[in-house]
Amino acid sequence: MTGAIDAVCRELGLSPEPAQTAALAKYLALLQRWNATHNLTAIREPAAMLTQHLADCLAVIPPLHRHMAQGRLLDVGSGGGLPGVVIAVMLPAVEVVCVDAVGKKAAFIRQAAGVLGLRNLRAVHARVEDLREAPFEVITSRAFASLADFVALTRRHLGADGVWLAMKGREPADEIAALPADTEVFHVEPLRVPGLDAQRCLIWMRPRRNP
């Protein structure tokens, strides 16, 4: 599996340390084991998990790294730790907090943090609107909610110069149009996911600055 992960990383222009590749492989194996009894994801085949989960999240790392080399990131509705665990592995200087309303999913992320030795990763079992944390530079989500709901539920957690980063499939024009007037999309970034024949993009948002 490490060879396949390295191949994906090369296609994305990433050069992980051997320990990072090993951690990603260990994470996938752990996800497969837990998924057998806890139903963390509907995708069960290892090859499909590699492409539809791991590669999909690794594609976010280059643009995210351009934006932040360190700081605090909140992953909302993290599920099985996607993309939060992947970000924590690949960007060790970023403090990653994963929040999920489902207890078994938060428990899995805690287990992954321990098994992988990720001191920069924490999981919180809570609804994001009840979360009590210091502000974050980046708040991200993957298949969590509409853009308007994502922004509304997390706005109080965003730092003064923070941004939202939503992982989406094709560009969601209707969702963008439904955003409140005080939120602006400042970049829609197409992504190419190795091995995946589907559209992916990142929606970068921030509170609208006063003219």
Percent in strands: 25-35%
Uncertain segments are: none
List the helices and strands in order. Answer: HHHHEHEHEEHEHEE
Distance between the termini: 51 Å
Question: In the CATH hierarchy, what is the class?
Answer: Alpha Beta
Fraction of residues in H or I helices: 40-55%
The coarse silhouette is: globular
Read across the widest sheet, the strand sequence of neighbours is 3-2-1-4-5-7-6
Largest sheet report:
7 strands, mixed
CATH fourth-tier homologous superfamily:
Vaccinia Virus protein VP39
Write a concise keyword list for the protein shown above.
single chain, 211 residues, alpha/beta, Rossmann fold, 8 helices, globular
Q: Would you kindly provide a written description of the structure presented here, covering whatever features stand out?
A:
With 211 residues, the chain is an alpha/beta fold. The chain has a single domain, classed as Rossmann fold (3-Layer(aba) Sandwich), CATH 3.40.50.150. Helices cover 40% and strands 25% of the residues. It has 8 helices and 7 strands, in the order H-H-H-H-E-H-E-H-E-E-H-E-H-E-E. Strands 3-2-1-4-5-7-6 form a 7-stranded mixed sheet, with helices on both faces. Strand 6 and strand 7 form a beta hairpin. The model has no long low-confidence stretch (mean pLDDT 93).
